[in-house]
């Protein structure tokens, strides 16, 4: 958003602004069991397998190196230096504003702006509501990554989960599966007549989650998206009738679209929901993620833990001082 | 009232049966009471003595035979095994269950084909027994057994995580609220009554949760318990010598499984079998799906490791040795079940994988030689640098990745073409394409089925 940071700015940031206290507790708690990775020159994190015995050594390292980017493993190892003896790993949802399949701003590919960042926040808030309210997961942290958000979950059950379980939970939380609609008739004398329930007629459990996600997507469509399974004519009609969803008049909406085309929407939306999150990250048990408190030098923003997830504003909490000073300079120059 | 040991071989009552009535020195003796129970089972086929297991050991073997027949035999007749579904069989069946578990734990590895088969058989027996009960009996018994398993109105979904992870139950099909899966009618009504204005919550419970979910949970929990039970015995078996009867039973189980599987396995191609085109034979590159074609040509640094170690290794080995895996689920299998002395694996499969690894940029083993070990381990031969039968079973033979998985892990490889329509696994793409080539007469002779030369690889 604010362009690349210069070496001088990086140095200034780590020397004057960065503070040990900005590292969240969930990071410092078991620091020596994590692997760190650094990108010193902006060419990818190739300084890996680093371990810090305590916060002080980490502090000195960051202050002296001012890395372009700093990462920490989501995994805990008995031997992190060799990435050996994996013990457990955080469960992560990565939502990147620049990769949202649906966003209502006018950003070019690869760009982000305040609006799509705000939409990312809304999306992660919805995800957290499900993770916490529906699935009852504990110990959920939200991190602003510089261009999007990381939900980092340290729930004991999920930390021990394998990739398969992580994938199943991901599909549930994201709304990436078309909800079951055909149910056998429980009346033994009526076995031949199955019930068919549209997702929006069942206001509970997964059906509700899916309905909420689809509603969100439809309300944020711009009309220029290219979505597999939705042709331009259908897209136009969705936008034409979407006001009906303001009052949750799904039946009318579906009636206007037509049942066959409505089914297309449902399966396309399941895919959109999956693409909203970087699924690769969620099922990975050994990934490294940007270190909270560190500088995202490509965009000159801080990666920070979000304390108040309803009202967080990255422009308020994640802009390093040197960016403001740049503006001051511009202002003085323009005088 | 039906006793819960009819479904749950781990309940107190079942355990006391084992304690008081199991006598390892007499398990091979004819038991006339058992024979009576079987002979008087309603609808039991008695046309031949072979239908009647006359001692506990035979009953244990019949359980396995029943399961394989039920799954695979198109002419399976439930009257051949009617006795498994009368309550009087319970004490005998409970003992047979525990003896088999001991035998399997002693002779076979964790997660071996034999172990998985036994566990699945237990799940199927529970399912079929539930189906044989009257509705009211069934409901009462289900609640009783779930109670024994510490499950009542609700259960935390994480309690079912193994079942969910293995996709036996889908999270999205469960009614979850606040971390809890709703199983009970009252609980459902209490939580959701006001969600339905024009329908009765009680009726919705019947449709959305009903008996089905509870029964699935019950069945899967017992299967899970069986797995843990076997694992437990395995951990102790180094210390305790097994009784000779147990060891004999283990040998008999192996023999029974081998015989039965030979009858039904798809890799012994059988032209009358609709799955017959899934016969084994040399790999046909022309039939590879786009994702495999590009992997074989080499992958650039991004997804290199997964593409070779997970994706290609599993694809190539199953495509070559056991393309019928998905048609034949339930038949757990090891590489050496088909490639007895590992010749094919050494000469055809590994070279293909290693060549693809070499085609990567940079060549995979150049900077990551340890990936060779990972490839061996994905074939089921443990973390070693060489294939060796001694280590087989230390790791699992990794099953081929589905298209969904490819799209998540290795999206750059999936370049759909028209053959991808309607398939959900690259292996199915392959078997179908191969079948088409064969019908068009384009399959070179050397790649035809080798089922005959191979069937003597097994005794
Ligand atoms: S659809 Fe499946 S088989 Fe086809 S290229 Fe993609 S992953 Fe391969
Ligand atoms: Zn934007």
Order of helices and strands of chain B: HHHHHHEHEEHHHHHHHHHHHHH
Tertiary shape of chain B: globular
Portion in beta strands of chain B? under 5%
Give, in order, the helices and strands of chain A. HHEEHEEEHEEHHEEHHHHHEEEEHH
The greatest interface here is:
A-B, 33 and 31 residues
The CATH C-level class name of the largest domain in chain B = Mainly Alpha
- Give average pLDDT of chain A, whole number: 93
Q: Give the amount of beta strand of chain A, in percent.
A: 15-25%
Gyration radius over CA of chain A: 23 Å
CATH level-4 homologous superfamily of the largest domain in chain A: DNA primase, PRIM domain
**What is the CATH C level class of the largest domain in chain A, in words?**
Alpha Beta
pLDDT under 50 segments of chain A (min length 5)? Answer: none
Most strands sheet of chain A = 5 strands, antiparallel
Low-confidence stretches of chain B: 266-278, 446-459
Count of the domains of chain A? 2
Briefly say what this structure is.
The complex is a heterodimer of chains A (335) and B (459). Chain A is α+β, with helices and mostly antiparallel strands and 335 residues long.
Structural features:
heterodimer; A: 335 residues; alpha+beta; DNA primase, PRIM domain; Helicase, Ruva Protein, domain 3; 4-stranded antiparallel beta sheet; 13 strands; B: 459 residues; mainly alpha; Transcription Elongation Factor S-II, Chain A; 2 domains; 3-stranded antiparallel beta sheet; 3 strands; 53% helix; globular; binds iron/sulfur cluster; binds zinc ion
Question: Describe it for me?
Answer:
The complex is a heterodimer of chains A (335) and B (459). Chain A has helices at residues 7-17, 25-28, 55-65, 114-134, 156-159, 163-174, 205-220, 232-241, 250-257, 259-276, 279-283, 314-317, 321-334, and strands at residues 34-39, 47-50, 69-79, 84-89, 91-96, 140-144, 148-153, 182-183, 195-196, 288-290, 295-296, 301-302, 304-305. With 335 residues, chain A is of the alpha+beta class. Chain A folds into 2 domains: 1-162 and 285-335, DNA primase, PRIM domain, CATH 3.90.920.10; 181-276, Helicase, Ruva Protein, domain 3, CATH 1.10.8. In chain A, the strands form 4 sheets. In chain A, strands 1, 2, 3, 4 and 10 form a 5-stranded antiparallel beta sheet that branches. Chain A is globular and about 75 Å long. Chain B has 459 residues and is mostly helical. Chain B folds into 2 domains: 4-149 and 212-264, Transcription Elongation Factor S-II, Chain A (Up-down Bundle); 274-455, no CATH class. In chain B, 53% of the residues lie in helices and 2% in strands. Chain B has a 3-stranded antiparallel beta sheet. In chain B, a hairpin with a 2-residue loop joins strand 2 and strand 3 (180-182). In chain B, helix 3 runs parallel beside helix 11 (244-264), helix 4 runs antiparallel to helix 5 (113-132) and helix 8 packs across helix 9. The chains are: A alpha+beta (335), B mainly alpha (459). The interface between A and B is medium-sized, with 33 and 31 residues. The structure holds iron/sulfur cluster (SF4) and zinc ion. Zinc ion binds at residues 103, 105, 107, 112-113, 115-116 of chain A.
């Amino acid at each position: 958003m604010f362009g690349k940071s210069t070496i001088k700015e990086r140095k200034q940031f780590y020397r004057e602004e960065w503070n040990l206290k900005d590292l969240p507790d969930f990071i410092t708690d078991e620091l020596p069991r994590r692997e760190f990775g650094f990108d010193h020159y902006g060419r990818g994190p190739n300084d890996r397998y680093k371990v810090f015995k305590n916060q002080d050594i980490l502090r000195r390292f960051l202050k002296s190196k001012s890395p372009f980017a700093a990462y920490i493993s989501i995994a805990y190892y008995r031997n992190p230096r060799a990435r050996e003896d994996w013990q457990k790993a955080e469960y992560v949802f990565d939502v990147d504003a620049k990769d949202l399949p649906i966003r209502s701003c006018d950003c070019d590919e690869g760009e982000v702006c305040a609006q799509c960042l705000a939409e990312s926040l809304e999306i992660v808030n919805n995800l957290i509501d499900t993770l916490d309210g529906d699935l009852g997961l504990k110990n959920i942290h939200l991190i602003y990554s510089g261009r999007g958000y990381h939900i980092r979950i340290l729930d004991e059950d999920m930390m021990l989960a394998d990739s398969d379980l992580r994938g199943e939970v991901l599909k549930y939380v994201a709304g990436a599966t078309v909800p079951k609609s055909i149910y056998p008739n429980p009346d033994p004398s009526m076995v031949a007549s199955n019930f068919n329930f549209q997702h929006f007629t069942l206001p509970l459990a997964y059906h509700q989650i899916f309905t909420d996600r689809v509603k969100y997507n439809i309300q944020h469509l711009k009309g220029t998206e290219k979505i597999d399974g939705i042709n331009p004519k259908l897209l136009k009609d969705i936008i034409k009738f979407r006001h009906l969803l303001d009052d949750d008049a799904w039946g009318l909406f579906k009636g206007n679209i037509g049942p066959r085309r409505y089914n297309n929407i449902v399966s396309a939306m399941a895919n959109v929901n999956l693409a909203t999150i970087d699924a690769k990250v969620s099922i990975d048990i050994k990934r490294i993620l940007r270190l909270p408190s560190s500088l995202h030098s490509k965009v000159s923003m801080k990666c920070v833990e979000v304390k108040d997830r309803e009202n967080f504003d990255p422009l308020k909490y994640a802009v390093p001082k040197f960016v403001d000073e740049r503006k001051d300079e511009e202002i003085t120059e323009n005088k | 009232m039906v006793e819960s040991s009819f479904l749950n071989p781990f309940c107190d009552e079942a355990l006391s049966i084992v304690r008081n009535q199991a006598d390892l020195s007499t398990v091979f003796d004819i038991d006339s009471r058992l024979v009576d129970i079987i002979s008087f089972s309603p609808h039991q086929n008695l046309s031949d003595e072979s239908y009647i297991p006359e001692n506990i050991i035979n009953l244990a073997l019949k359980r396995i035979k029943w399961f394989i027949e039920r799954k695979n035999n198109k002419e399976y007749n439930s009257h051949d095994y009617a006795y498994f579904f009368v309550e009087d069989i319970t004490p005998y069946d409970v003992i047979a269950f525990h003896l088999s578990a001991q035998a399997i734990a002693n002779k076979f590895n964790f997660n071996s084909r034999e172990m998985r088969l036994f566990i699945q058989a237990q799940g199927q027996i529970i399912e079929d027994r539930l189906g044989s009960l009257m509705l009211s009996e069934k409901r009462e018994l289900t609640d009783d057994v779930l109670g024994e398993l510490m499950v009542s109105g609700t259960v935390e979904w994480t309690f079912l995580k193994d079942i969910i992870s293995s996709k036996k139950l889908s999270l999205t099909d469960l009614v979850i609220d606040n971390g809890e899966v709703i199983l009970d009618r009252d609980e459902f009504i209490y939580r959701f009554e006001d969600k339905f204005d024009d329908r009765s919550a009680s009726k919705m419970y019947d449709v959305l949760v009903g008996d089905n979910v509870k029964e699935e949970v019950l069945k899967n929990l017992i299967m899970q318990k069986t797995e843990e039970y076997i694992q437990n015995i395995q951990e102790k078996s180094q210390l305790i010598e097994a009784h000779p009867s147990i060891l004999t039973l283990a040998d008999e189980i192996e023999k029974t499984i081998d015989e039965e599987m030979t009858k039904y396995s798809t890799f012994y191609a059988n032209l009358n079998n609709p799955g017959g085109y899934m016969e084994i034979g040399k790999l046909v590159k022309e039939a590879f799906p786009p994702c495999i074609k590009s992997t074989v040509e080499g992958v650039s640094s991004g997804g290199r490791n997964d593409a070779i170690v997970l994706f290609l290794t599993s694809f190539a080995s199953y495509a070559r040795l056991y393309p019928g895996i998905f048609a034949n689920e339930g038949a757990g299998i090891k590489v050496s079940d088909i490639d007895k002395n590992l010749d094919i694996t050494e000469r055809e499969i590994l070279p293909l994988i290693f060549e693809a690894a070499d085609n990567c940029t940079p060549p995979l083993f150049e900077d990551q030689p340890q990936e060779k070990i990972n490839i061996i381990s994905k074939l089921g031969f443990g973390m070693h640098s060489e294939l060796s039968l001694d280590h087989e079973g230390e790791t699992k033979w990794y099953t081929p990745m589905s298209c969904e998985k490819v799209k998540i892990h290795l999206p750059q490889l999936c370049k759909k073409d028209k053959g991808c329509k309607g398939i959900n696994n690259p292996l199915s793409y392959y078997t179908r394409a191969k079948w088409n080539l064969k019908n068009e007469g384009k399959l070179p002779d050397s790649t035809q089925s080798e089922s005959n030369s191979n069937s003597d690889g097994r005794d």
